Amino acid sequence: MNMPLNAETLDSEPLNRSQHRQETRLPTALELRGRFPVSESLAWEIAGYREQIRRVLHGEDNRTLIVIGPCSIHDEEAALDYGRKLKALADEVSDRFLIVMRAYLEKPRTTVGWKGLLYDPERTGRGDLKQGLERSRRLLLGLSELGLPLATEALGPFMMDYLGDLVSWTAIGARTTESQIHREMVSGLPMPVGFKNGTDGSIGVAINAMKSGAHPHHHMGISHCGSPAMISTPGNPDTHLVLRGGRGITNYDELSIARAVEELEKAGVNSAVMVDCSHDNARKQAERQQEIAREVMAQKDKGNSHIKGLMLESFLAFGRQDDGDDLIYGCSLTDPCLGWEQTEALIRSL
Ligand SMILES: O=C[C@H](O)[C@H](O)COP(=O)(O)O
Ligand SMILES: C=C(OP(=O)(O)O)C(=O)O
Predict the structure, then answer these.
(1) Region (Disordered) spans which residues (predicted)?
(2) Are the CB atoms for 224 and 284 separated by under 8 Å?
(3) Residue 230 lies in a domain
(4) Is 1 inside a domain boundary?
């Protein structure tokens, strides 16, 4: 017999859960941008980087776009050190490569784990978005002032309102490419966006994402002043596919790229392809990125004009480490990265 539902018999656990939810006020996007403003000259520089990336993706500039840098940033000093080295290298090879630094502040997790500087800058597990937003914006400004175009993954649907003016290329990760919320966000972003293939290796979700991202949308959001708002977006024509492998299957070989291009063309979307040399393509073995990058560049040199870019995970020190008291300077806390010497040698060899 069913029990009657009343105050005595009703499970109070869900009610307690909602009572335990806490809300902490954060600055609005306008307030944060006002505290850490972009100068007019920097804004023009960033507009110029976005245009250069667009030109590469649309085949008007033959250089190869390389999105490279740490898997995640946990230490601003190490990120700036890395940025200075990358800037010097980028200038040296700028006739062949358009180098954009990965400045990843939000990490999507398969289950749970540290979610990045923006969410938990002190890595206590308690989170501090106020400090995370401030430190993230200050860092992006510092890196931009080095003269580097920046890339990030847009994960939280409102984060780009706070940081997007400093970003020249954005990724939608494998775990969120299928999300309507992210596709709506892309539709209003002012920079080129790469959609990763799904974690299972499927390309169809990224193609659907490109179609949706190119479309105008109306969606729920927060105005720059912090009020709930209906956001209307025009559609983003500058999206492309990023091949990152999936579930133990790689997709950077000639046949996989040819199949991907065929599907892109059949769907009538941009056939530009970037290969992520890390993640499932490298089976999380950082050193494998070197042979993958060489192999993909060889395909490009042989005439595959759809290959427009590479993504590489690289930091000052090779590999990765677990968080703790005795951290190695410039070594990733998330996925393993190439070290600086390997990175420099690799880019020169390409
Ligand atoms: O790029 C980083 C990771 O691959 C991604 O954030 C997932 O990490 P996880 O599987 O360790 O949670
Ligand atoms: C999380 C990342 O990639 P993916 O979405 O391909 O796993 C990343 O590039 O840091």
Answers:
(1) 1-26
(2) no
(3) yes
(4) no
ipTM: 0.97
109 Cα nearest atom in ligand 1: 12
Closest listed residue to residue 96, CA positions, set 300, 292, 237: 300
Confidence bin at 26 (pLDDT 50/70/90)? very high
CA distances from 36 to 115, 133, 136, 166 (A): 23, 11, 10, 11
User: DSSP assignment of 51-92, as one string?
Assistant: HHHHHHHTTSS-SEEEEEE-SS---HHHHHHHHHHHHHHHHH
CATH number at residue 102: 3.20.20.70
* Average pLDDT of the residues of the chain: 96
Tracing tokens 């190490």 back to the chain, one arrives at 78
| 142 in contact with ligand 2, CB cutoff 6 A | no
What spacing in Å lies between the alpha carbon of 79 and ligand 1's midpoint? Answer: 19
Q: Does a structural domain hold residue 344?
A: yes
Name the residue range of residue 295's domain: 27-349
Q: Which residue has the tokens 């409102």?
A: 158
Q: 110, 280, 289: which to mutate for ligand 1, most atoms within 8 A of CB? A: 110
Ligand 2 pocket member 182 (CB < 6 A): no
Domain contains 21 = no
Query: Could you report the per-residue pLDDT of 104-118, keeping only the tens digit for each?
Result: 999 999 999 999 999
Count up the domains in the chain and report the number. Answer: 1
Atom of ligand 1 nearest to the CA of 334: 2
For 58-98, write each residue's pLDDT tens digit.
999 999 999 999 999 999 999 999 999 999 999 999 999 99
Verify whether ligand 2 is closer than 6 Å to residue 279 (CB atom).
yes
Provide the token pair at 117: 């500087």
Q: What CA–CA distance (Å, rounded) separates 72 from 106?
A: 8
Residues 224-266 pLDDT 10s: 899 999 999 999 999 999 999 999 899 999 999 999 999 999 9
